[in-house]
Design goal:
CATH class of the largest domain: Alpha Beta
Helix content: 25-40%
CATH superfamily of the largest domain: NAD(P)-binding Rossmann-like Domain
Largest sheet: 9 strands, mixed
Oligomer: single chain
Strand order of the largest sheet: 14-13-12-11-7-10-9-8-15
Number of domains: 2
Shape: globular
Number of strands: 15
Strand content: 15-25%
CATH topology of the largest domain: Rossmann fold
């Protein structure tokens, strides 16, 4: 695919796009695409670090895209490294250079970043390696596309921002998923009036995962060592654009508190016996955390975090001056003052979801994938995921993904600020302005008129 010029882009407005969307995607080209036989003329070269469940899924997604090359893979487990090599070879691509089994072990990604000619490094490691991998990539002339969270501490956040501003190489949590673009279209169209409050969170029972040595046992260590709202990125990827955070508004301060911690000890005792070390080990992470976030312009976020108790997945609620939308248990309801047929009663949101489906989704028609469904920890999709499409487009066009470096850092830094508030008995903690004042001029993302 040749690079889009202004004339080509304006042609796409017939599919419901506009130049304002182009400006709103944080210097990114539109995610939507007309049917194409390929993405670009020049091959895109990706290096992968971490090939567990999510890393396998991302590698499988990439191998289904024409024009993508995978010259290098880094993984410390030999079985995963061999499986990844076989996947690349089975796709008809050359055997990749393998890293991670030598004397450098866990830090062999540094050699990959130094020696390989790559456009982007794909990071799907455990959390503590996200920043080291991203910095190694950025400091060696490569962009970094990372699983969430991007950072764990404020020091890491500032290092990412400063490295981006120094090198021009971005780090993005584009791999972490895609916002609810249809909901954002409702917000942009003024359906709910001025947005006042959003409530969401990461509420997902992970007791089995934390106690399974074959899956992600490193997650348990975070519950042992930390206490806060530790996984904010999934909910924040829709909340931030809905509230124009970093794009006309910014987070001002945060208040956070956690309940006591009992559930992980009880689970270990029930599953492995009362004499198991985890049955009595001190767990710092409270079983439930609630964080209240306020923006400079007076909007509020209630952000919940609970991965230790038995429950279904989280619910979502967005409140504006003209109405409210809620998604609970997969059932979407809405109430709009005036349009809703019954005063103060919910109605189904189905007709609104159909009417306001975002052109990014309605017109999404990427080139056909090579091979079958995507494998690994994620949906078995037969179409290129829209966030992967956005990543490839950003590389092709020399832009940033829709969630750029500033937004990625801000989203993940919620966890560090929440930890500070919890440790200080729930007192307010000021939130850093990673944009250094640029939030006042940055265009809202996913704008469509």
């Amino acid at each position: 695919m040749s690079k889009l010029n202004r004339k080509d882009f304006l042609k796409m407005s017939t599919a419901g796009l506009s130049t304002s969307m182009l400006a709103g995607l944080s210097m990114s080209k539109p995610v939507v695409a007309k049917k194409r036989s390929s993405y670009q003329q020049k091959p895109i070269r990706l290096g992968f670090v971490g090939i567990g469940g999510r890393g396998t899924w991302h590698l499988s997604a990439a191998l289904g895209i024409e024009g993508v090359e995978v010259p290098a893979i880094c993984e410390i487990r030999a079985d995963r490294l061999e499986n990844a090599k076989n996947m690349v070879e089975a796709s008809g691509r050359p055997t990749p250079t393998l890293y991670g089994e030598g004397p450098q072990g866990e830090t062999d990604f540094q050699r990959l970043c130094e020696e390989e000619d790559l456009d982007v490094v794909i990071c799907s490691t455990s959390w503590k390696w996200h920043v080291p991998v991203c910095l190694a990539a950025m400091n060696n002339g490569k962009h970094a596309a990372c699983e969430v969270p991007l950072v764990l501490t404020l020091d890491e956040a500032w290092r990412i921002v400063e490295t981006f501003e120094k090198t021009g190489k971005w780090a993005s949590t584009v791999l972490g998923g895609f916002p609810d673009a249809t909901l954002l279209n409702m917000v942009r169209k003024g359906l709910f009036g001025e947005i006042i409050h959003v409530e969401d969170g990461y509420v997902h029972d992970l007791r089995f995962v934390k106690n399974n040595v074959d899956r992600e046992p490193w997650r348990l260590q975070h519950s042992i060592d930390r206490n806060g709202n530790l996984y904010p990125d999934h909910p924040m990827r829709t909340i931030m654009p809905a509230l124009d955070i970093n794009h006309g508004d910014r987070i001002d301060f945060l208040v956070s508190m956690s309940s006591k911690a009992v559930m992980l000890n009880r689970y270990a005792a029930e599953q492995f016996g009362s004499d198991h070390p985890d049955a009595t080990r001190k767990m710092n992470q409270g079983d439930y955390n609630a964080s209240l976030i306020r923006t400079v312009n007076g909007k509020m976020i209630t952000l919940n975090f609970d991965t230790n108790t038995p429950h279904p997945r989280e619910s979502f609620r967005i409140q504006g001056t003209k109405g409210v939308y809620e998604d609970g248990g997969g059932i979407q309801t809405i109430y709009l003052e005036g349009p809703s047929p019954e005063e103060h009663e919910w109605e189904s949101a189905d007709k609104y979801l159909e009417e306001y489906e975002h052109p990014l989704l309605k017109n999404y028609n990427p080139p056909a994938r090579i091979g079958g469904a995507i494998e690994g920890h994620g949906q078995r999709m037969t179409q290129t995921p829209i966030n992967w499409h956005n990543l490839i487009m950003a590389i092709s066009e020399g832009t940033q993904p829709y969630i750029d470096t500033y937004d990625s850092v801000t989203s993940s830094a919620v966890s560090a600020v929440s930890e500070a508030s919890v440790a200080n008995n729930g007192r307010p903690v000021d939130f850093p302005d990673f944009t250094k004042g640029k939030w006042k001029e940055r265009t809202p993302i996913f704008m469509e008129v």
